[in-house]
Amino acid sequence: MAFSNLLVEDVNGVRWLTINRPTKLNALNRDVMGELQQAVTHFLHDGDARALVLTGAGEKAFVAGADIAEFVDLGPRRGMSLARHGQSLYDAIESAPKLVIAAVNGFALGGGCELALACHLRLASSNARFGQPEVKLGLIPGYGGTQRLPRLVGKGRALEMLLSGEMVDAAKALAWGLVNRVVEPRELRAAAQALAEQVLAVSPCAVARCLRAVNAGLNLPLDQAEKLEAALFGECFKTDDMKEGTTAFLEKRPPRFAGK
Prior knowledge:
This protein is of the alpha/beta class. It has helices at residues 30-45, 76-94, 111-118, 145-153, 155-164, 170-176, 188-200, 204-217, 222-236, 240-250, and strands spanning 6-11, 14-19, 51-56, 61-63, 99-104, 107-109, 121-125, 129-131, 168-169, 181-183. Helix content is 47%, strand content 17%. The strands form two sheets. Strands 1-2-3-5-7-10 form a six-stranded mixed beta sheet, sandwiched between helices. The longest helix has 19 residues, at 76-94. It is globular and about 60 Å long.
């Protein structure tokens, strides 16, 4: 697929989507959001792409927020519609049955921070900066930031970021659990690719069920979440992957998972 604002590259089963507006610090506008929607939908239905890495062009920014110029003429109804559209896209990323990684280089602010939050795993370069500065514009996050951030780092730390609008550096993001790993900028791509390939080596059936169990379970009482886990655990026993994995273990050989 060819896009005006996205670069697409497939490497060993991993699809790389690079938001390519470096002169605008990869800011999200309507065109970028529309292309992201298309690219994510294509990824979800493409059997050859088994994992996705989202990143930004250049070392200055992953995504430095939304294109504020597009906000000027919005009223309440159109503002809510804009938020719901962004939430729908980010929900699709979070609920993907295949791994999605954010490789965060530089600024991840506003909608860019929210995009990273929607991914399953987050790798950051040491120059990464995270923030939800919407309050400085008289706004609040609209793409799920007020909901995903406290679920990830806790209410107190989330409110500190949301109410102050100040940025968090990579070291603090790691300490808070906002990111999984921090690497030097020159190592970010290789680290994200290696992590994706590590996940690709295990059962795709099991990965999909782990993602579903965690994402759905976080929004359920513990007893209901455990019932969901048990049901998904039981489903594994009907898969060829489970048979192959247990047989390979007993035969002391590497498994060859087919994702069935």
